[in-house]
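Re: export button greyed out
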Amino acid sequence: MEELLRPFDFEFFRNGLIVATLAGALCGMVGVYVVLKGMSYIGHGLSHAIFGGFAASALLGVNFALGAGVWGVASALMINGVTRRRVIGADAAIGVITTASFALGLALFAVFGRAGRSFDAALFGSILGVGSEDVWAIVAVTVLVALVVFFGYRQLLFTTFDPEVAEASGVRTARVDALLMLALAGSILATMQVLGVTLIAATLVIPATVARMLTDSFSRMLLLATGIGAVTGFVGMNLSYHLDVQSGPTIVLVGAALFAVVFAVTGRRGRRRTAGLDRHATTPLAPVSSTPR
Amino acid sequence: MTPSSATELVRLAGVSCSYGGDPVLADVDLAVTARQFSGIVGPSGSGKTTLLRVLLGSVEPSAGTVWRRPGLRVGYVPQVEAVDWSFPVTVSECVLMARTHGRVLPWRSRSEQAEVRDILGRLGIEELASRHIRDLSGGQQQRVFIARALLGAPELLLMDEPTSGVDVRTRHDVLHLLEDLHGDGLAIVLTTHDLNGMAAHLPHIVCLNTEVLGEGSPRQVLTPDVLERTYGARMEILEHAGMPVVLDRYAPADNVVRLRNKGA
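Workaround output, generated via the alternate export path:
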């Protein structure tokens, strides 16, 4: 028992634990919309895009939250615009924008060295660099996103399920989609340090998918995914310390193990519930006007 | 544009639509009045869903004008094929989805609970409130989306293919339900492939194939000439119990090569 509680003596661990638990809860909550809209690829791409801003701000000595934040918001709005207007194929456009940004980040680190924040931590997550400012940042983003989900619950649900009828019923679906992208960008920014850009997508997808296997109700799925995300973050961070493995991979592996258990326990019912989760995969943010006849 | 009568809800004048290629709708003139009960018929790809979406306001025409009575409340029931049946919503969550204005809290109020219960009871599906939408029959699924549309107290209900993919009994149940709603004062416009169901239940039919080719009562519209112009094939019409009955016997036009004759 004493061994289990020993890491709590260290401030960096306590900070990391708070950030990981909140990061799990935040990603679980936002992940419900990401998964149900078939936006998993956007979540993955956006985290890579933000890496470009992270690299630029680290090397230029610009405040990380400001540099990567502006970069992330710009990428999110660009992706949102491309997917809604269908300028070119949405998946191709996201691939170009996000991988180009990721490649830029790698190139900047290669040319100018790895000054400032840790390169490996950004990619795979680490609790070593977590300071009190990171704790406050994730508390602020979690509260903000929770408020958006709470007060925009009805509009978000209607837009996620049936964007065309929602628009015709007076819901400003373009604004709701943009807000969701901003929430996603904010969540990625706030959790990048602990989870790492290459693994954030898993923390968005796994809690929501596990929750979907457990319930047929949207409101319960939202609460379950948030709780599952928080628990996997908490457990994963503790295991990360004791196993001496980076925090990002440990948290994701805890989530994956939970997924396997729930998948086995819920059996056919669980598989049937998740069978249609890729339904929107080709139209991540379904535009209001498709091409009906 | 101004309405030609005080009872008009929506009026389209010279409306054309395209999605970048050939026009889907061309020069469509159509008026929907209060208490109207209309069916839009036409072959696949004739523009029925687009016309419905223009009436709804979710598709902007590329030419022409659309007038809607200010403050008009419109309900929309999508095609069952367009619904994501794996989405995690129960019947009551789905119905309440239409209530996005007036209350910001996520959970439903007591009055909203009572409203949902009343509407589900009116449609005969009250006991299904906590079921997932996938675990319902075709007719029950239609009723859930009708209930969602009715929660907004619409004056005009638009329905896309409400009778597609359901058995004969369910089809007539749905059409009888719509007759009852129309009897309560609701204007209804629906699209369908079911010519005889329309002849039996609807007083007004619009024949569409990119343009409006006929409009009026079933007796006026369901004629060999109008149907040939609409479907590009000659059809036989019989009369049964005072109603026109379209024989489902397709006679291809002269320029269509029959596959079985091809090798002969």
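Confidence is low (pLDDT under 50) at residues 280-292 of chain A. The button fix ships in the next patch.
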